[in-house]
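queue> holo job accepted (zinc ion)
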Amino acid sequence: MTETQNSELLTYEAVKAGGQRVVPSMDFLRLRWFFKGSIEVSIHVLEDATDSTSAQTPYQITVATSTPDGQAIQQVQQHVISSSSISDLPISSIEVRLADLNYWEERWEDAHRPEESCSAIWIDDGPEGERKAIQCCGEDRPYLNSPIPSLTVKASKEPKPFVTIHDFITAVHPWMSALEDDIRHSRGVIRGTPVPKKANLFVHNSSLSPLRTIDDLGQSPATVAYGRRNVAAMTTRIRDGTSPA
Ligand SMILES: [Zn+2]
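queue> job finished
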């Protein structure tokens, strides 16, 4: 690690506000992160983030072992990258937002064009007589009465003082899994229907917040492989310091 480990760590937001470069770490870029239930079945680790076809191993496994006195127990083990920083520079915390939820309202407007629909329901919105559609085609406007969800992930400090991959995964995986229906809704607005469960949903590792997801609905294996090669190419640029912050 660099000297930054010894000095006071900043939050992700403070590092960005200070104009410093903060990108996903090379180990974070190795994650192959799906939403198929538990962390054990959903997340794998690529041998080499710059090679999209390199071998993958599970991020977390449960192994049967025994105590010194011979009692059989189950032990949960994480991949060695679990204690790596999620980012380069390391950070003390990060407020995670999801790109799909950030864009949901805008996508809803684009898809519905409520001003052209006789079925839209409007409310007054602003002193200048502005109005806002709160429902169209029987569908409510997203986040009308609630803020867009976000999640603050803090460094657990042990074993490392910065936000580790394990800090991030253990907080973000259950949170995103609970929001999965909304993510599929947002991704499906333009397509006219939510992205169905039969399509895989997975994290695009290019940014930490807003965190992007992609899906493979209607994509051939060749198209998915092409997307994976693009991520690997982006990984090479991040490694070489030639990517934008
Ligand atoms: Zn509509």
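queue> The CA atoms of residues 12 and 94 lie 5 Å apart.
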